[in-house]
Automatic annotation (TrEMBL):
Pfam families: Methyltransf_23 (PF13489). It comes from the Eukaryota. InterPro entries: SAM-dependent_MTases_sf (IPR029063). Keywords: Methyltransferase, Transferase. Residues 1-10 have a biased composition (Basic and acidic residues). One of its GO terms (biological process) is methylation. It comes from Hyaloscypha bicolor E. This is S-adenosyl-L-methionine-dependent methyltransferase. GO terms for molecular function: methyltransferase activity. Transmembrane segments: none annotated. The keyword Transferase applies. SUPFAM superfamilies: S-adenosyl-L-methionine-dependent methyltransferases (SSF53335). Residues 1-49 are annotated as: Disordered. Signal peptide: none annotated.
Amino acid sequence: MEGQDLHPSEAPDEDDGISGVVPTASVANSGPEVDSNDNDSAIDMFSRPSSTQSVRASIYDFVEEHGRTYHNFHSGKYLIPNDALEKDRLELQNHIWKLTLDGKLHFTPFSTPPQRVLDVGCGTGTWAIEFALQYPSAHVTGTDLSPIQPNYVPANCVFEIDDAEEEWLFTEPFDYIHGRTLMNCFKDISTVFASVFKALAPGGHFEMQDGCMPFRSADGTLDNTTLLDWCHKTLEGSARVGRRWVDPRNYKVIMEAVGFVDVVETRLKWPLNTWPRDKKLKELGMWVREDMMEILSAVKKVFIAGLGWSVDDADAFVERAKADLMNRNIHGWIDIVVVYGRKPEAL
Ligand SMILES: C[S@@+](CC[C@H](N)C(=O)[O-])C[C@H]1O[C@@H](n2cnc3c(N)ncnc32)[C@H](O)[C@@H]1O
């Protein structure tokens, strides 16, 4: 203990008081005395996290596969990563959507601004944040499987980790529910649309904005390309793992079937690169090409898990599809659907 400045009370006790004493069986087996006073708040100042807190903590333990991370809450449902690359892609796609819709966040015509708003599968939450800023009197909730939303958001915007395929437990009805690029998220989109219908107040609106697969071309230049094959293989692999992509061109019919009225559909196009002459479409094509460069490899898990391909085979396939994407002689596009409808006032 030389050189150490120990306070007398911290110094080891040289005389343990039991030296030379042969313990009796009862002394050897006795443990520390029990404190019958359970209310010593000075010592028991830490509380164990509640079960919901530990669930919250575990949702940040993302699943890692082939150099990407995936959501852990209800793990395995959504086959696209949730890492920094994907978050950047979603930001780029948000820009593409705004360019496509001429800066609008919605096509639904509101007679009065909606007060309770839900964004299902909100991703990085950018749409929800922008909607909250545009409508300061609204309270906007964004839900997603992945906790990838920012911490600093407008006071009228909150995010919750929630699975839209489970029973919806919101206690107050919404005036407007929105969903964007969710075509590959749900096993049964009708069930999710029915949950939306139920969660809306009478007269409330629902709007979906989405892209369709497979890609198309008018002049046959997409035929027999790896890019088109990528669409078919993605659809096939996803279906095999039980996550079939929906065709958003069917949204209108599905919305009407669950009870929505005055359903209005608009169809638009995202060129796959800069091939169109039209200035706006050319600019869109430039951004869509960058978005697609990333998504082409982001779905790799579908080829590996769904089609049984090796990582190397999947990588080589994606590289060939990327080369097609860069080829301006291939005049492909993605069909875009924006559809909104209203829950009737009187049911
Ligand atoms: C392509 S991203 C779109 C994100 C956002 N809507 C946007 O447009 O930027 C799809 C999102 O849906 C989420 N998602 C997938 N399945 C879901 C589910 N069952 N419940 C809630 N969110 C889900 C994913 O985690 C992902 O963030």
